Protein 1
Amino acid sequence: MNNNKVLFVDDEVNILNSIRRVTIGEEFETIIATNGERALEIFSENEISVIVTDMRMPKMNGLELLEKVKEISPNTIRMVLSGYAQIPQVIATVNKVGVFKYITKPWNNEEEFLPAIAEALHYYNLQRENDLFKSQLEERNKLYKKMLEYNNAIVKNSQSDVDSIKIITKKYVTLKNNCFKSLQFEHKNNELSTYINDVIDKLYFQYLETIPSIKESFNLSVFDEKFKVLEEKGITLIFENDSIKKINYLGNKRIIVLVLDNMLNVITSNCDSGDIILNFSNSKTLNINFLIRNKTSLENMSNNIEFKLVLNILDDMCKTFGGKLSFNPEKFQISIDTNLQIQN
């Protein structure tokens, strides 16, 4: 037996008893009600596949019942039991509530009654399968659309990555050549030349590790462990407000970490940690500011060739995602505009 339920409604108990007997062993569950009110209660408790109702009943007649059934359970197949004298009323009901079939009293169980019920159930199940198929098709279409959007985003990102790699590679080659020529010609310092080239190589290969670029949602709380280490070293951390750590940003977190880490490394190698203030503020996007409190350290750092190279390369990296890295010695400040999108 499957889960189809057929509700028979008639105020004549002997007819309902006859229906119960004839439907024993059929592949559906038989439910009976002697009036429209009880039938509606049954609908509130069950999923009814087919309703078969008499037309003439006290209080609520068959037409009134089927009108309510159409409202509360539009997928239920509606059928009518009627005598020949009720044909005009049946026709009116067919036109008003959409009756699938009507069975005239008296009926032949094997030739009329059971085949009519079977046909109604077949139609109901077919309708339900079609609805399920449509739902699955809609879900597949949604999934396909998401996949298409994802693939388009990958293609778009891939092209953007290719363009960015070209820019950074050109910068990499140019800096290495210029650095080599300058150091060899002016200083003849092979050890320094090797060190500077290593710095350029390290930054370049770190950048390549951020490819393919992936936009992800994150907030500053993911850096809590890093912040703790910085504070232990004596670096002062200032956040614009208590809620800034909870703001969710969308962007390439890996390249933001790369820029932040390398700026910290080059600044701490030239300045005492106690002279460094790291400030996080938010105005449309996330801004990271390094403030150097010691003027002498700042001046020495600004003349340091490693600092200049790192600043130059990281600025180009920031430009690949629409950001900017700037150095303002008059304000004792290095700023990173991350251009990260704020997620609502």
Protein 2
Amino acid sequence: MDKVLKRARSKGIETIPDLAVQTGLSEPTLYRLANGNEPSLPTVWRIARLLGARIESILLEVPTVPGAEADGAPHQRKRPAARRQRTSA
């Protein structure tokens, strides 16, 4: 997120509250990103659009998601087994 903020500063956006106003995102959302939370795609899109950047470049600048594998691939959760349907006798 530091690199995102640096890009924002180069466009005259100095603080997270300023970035919130310019993107239409809430300050708490941006503070969560600054603290390492994973952004949603619409959030990344708004930031990228404001900064004139590609979504991919913003995603690469946001901190790694906790639980990511060593190769950078996201950790895959196992889905719970499907429940059996009860049949009446």
Protein 3
Amino acid sequence: MQWAPLRQAALGKCPVCRPDYMICRQRVITVAVHGTAGCERFSRAAPTHEKERKHTEVVPFINVYERSMCKVRETLVDIYQEYPDEVEYIFKPSCLPLMRCAGCCSDENFECVPTEWYNVTMQILRMKPHMSQLYVEKTFQQHSRCECRQKKEIKGKQENHCEPCTETERRKHLFVQDPQTCKCSCKNTDSRCKTKQLELNERTCRRGKKPRADQAVCSPLFC
């Protein structure tokens, strides 16, 4: 079999057969025997440079960042998550595509939360094992706007970072605390106590009668 004439004929019928392919000779022989059908068979079987390049293509940072942002997106939500009291039933489908807030925030102390939402009613099949089944209408919440807000547990910790002024709940009302410095002070002032001929114990914030010389200063006598 002469190579040059077959090669020229095959290149005309099958453009994907180029001289830089190692298997080009085999393609030429196949095209010569089977015609353009052989060319199509080789085109499907062997990957081209363009297909190989697509598999190794790197997604740019800006695309990755935009796709991961906090926004409304379709999310599959388990029905039992929305209706935990109906676990005795089987639902078809068991999860639903709902528009929900999801994504990443620039600060790990923040989370993606909804700021606007609305309700949507969907018809689903509800079944009970070995019993009848029926179509029911269930209401689900969908989100329409999102934003990044500080996580509740982080916010709570920041608001209550001070140690309590007293260990007993009964005496809490006697103190005021500066949230910035955590300094505790008494609600009642010493001057106010003196007008009632009482003395303020600044350690306990209790008001008591002025002690005699033979009494302790912290005598817990209430007015």
Protein 4
Amino acid sequence: MQTNKQNPGVTNSGAPRAPLKETTSSNVVNDEEKGRRDGNGCTEEKDKTWSLDNFEIGRPLGKGKFGNVYLAREKSSKFIIALKVLFKSQLQKAQVEHQLRREIEIQAHLRHPNILRLYGYFHDDVRVYLILEFAPRGELYKEMQAQPHGHFDEKRSAKYILQLASALKYCHTKKVIHRDIKPENLLLSLRGDLKIADFGWSVHAPSSRRTTLCGTLDYLPPEMVEGKPHDEKVDHWSLGVLCYEFLCGKPPFEADSNRETYNRISKVDLKFPSHVSDKAMDLMVKLLMHNPSERLNLDGVLQHPWILELTKDFPTQTTHAH
């Protein structure tokens, strides 16, 4: 990887810190294998102060609302990461500074194989830098678009739902509700395992997948579109919506206007294409219940016949939290 200090928005200033997990691995394959063995990728440097001097900056990986993401490598360990560069002025303008700080603290303490690691952060006068796990296969949504019919088959969908349910169960035990589970927030590791990538401070590019106004509504549960109190069961609903989208290529309540989407969500107006199996439909119906308390719990998802049948050959270690 060539060092590139001319990348727009990246300067060589340093500042405060947070721990980065390091490894002696020099490539993504070994980095991932190391991470799978020890659960986090290497040893923590509790008092390390990070700056751009610690990294070789590579190609841009993505452009977002608050900044850009670059491939990078920590110089001493050769550990490959993704470096998100967020501009403070834009964070201030959007009034999301406090949210960013809170979400950084949340994700920095999450350890699960299906949750993208936040290794640390630092900042200067102009920018905040997030040191993130690199997911080489990129956005799950793009992978879905590339499928022959624009959606995944049932076996692959079941694998992703299993991994998502496992990650969400872990989050909920930590009293973390994601509230924003959607394909754009999901990445894929080199081996094709799902990674939840964003916890409220996403800098992903504005979605190219949907040009209608109803994009933000598609994944919201009835209690949120109706302005009612909500709890972790919002994530159970999102799991049902994602299962539908994995299998059908579009979310279940998509419509031409916000009002129509709102009405379809409130009525739980579900229609299934003929290719969806009865067992898959059963799981989605049990997750997409209007009353949050009636939604299938995450243990129920993990033990559902559709999941068990289609993931019986799936390695169990990928769903084990650390």
